[in-house]
Amino acid sequence: MSESSAALTGLLARAAEGDADATDELAAQVYPTLHRLAHRQLNAHRRETLSTTDLTHEAYLRLFGPRALEGLENRGHLYAAAARVMRHVLVDYARRKNASKRGGDLQRVTLADTDQPNGELAVDILVLDAALDRLQQADQRCFRVVELRFFGGCTNDEVADYLGVSVMTVKRDWRKARAFLYADMDEPS
């Protein structure tokens, strides 16, 4: 375990015990990574109207909310939790956007608002989320690989270390998961 990984693990333990100083220090160390992950996620979905900062802040609030750090033992757990939180933030945002498109959240629209995207991405995120749920049911490890690589921004080496498998296994699971998701999302509903 690297020095920074060991230090982060120590901060996690202290923060989970309620040490406010450790929580503040942990947040300061993790926030830049959350911002980088949010930027990466939103770049993958260029038409999204949610900003990198909005996604980062929402993920931060959920990740560092009351009792949210309990059970996180190390850097890998922390970034897996961050990946999961970002996925949920994006899905919640897409659902709200979809609901408002259907009249669930009627608002006055001005001409300045008309340059916003038409919401096609919201459906894509929801389809991906449903496919990920089915992948999780079919193969938990492949699901974790996707969650850590795609949403968590982890490298194959980091995923292998976190899951306790070889890098070749991670690569194989990544290919298998991608094939599953492409086939699942390509099927008509």
Keyword list:
mainly alpha, 189 residues, 8 helices, single chain, globular
Task: Give a written overview of the molecule.
This protein has 189 residues and is an all-alpha fold. The protein has one domain (3-186). The protein contains eight helices and no strands. The longest helix is centred in the middle third of the chain and has 27 residues, at 75-101. The chain is globular, with a radius of gyration of 18 Å. 31% of the residues are buried. Residues 105-123 have low confidence and may be disordered.
Gist?
The chain is mostly helical and 189 residues long. It has one domain (3-186).
Beta-strand proportion: under 5%
Rg value: 18 Å
Biggest sheet: strands, sense, closure?
A: none
Number of β-strand runs = 0
Shape: globular
**Span between N and C termini?**
45 Å
- SSE series: HHHHHHHH
Can you tell me the number of structural domains? 1
Poorly predicted segments: 105-123
Helix content: over 70%
Helix/strand structural class? mainly alpha
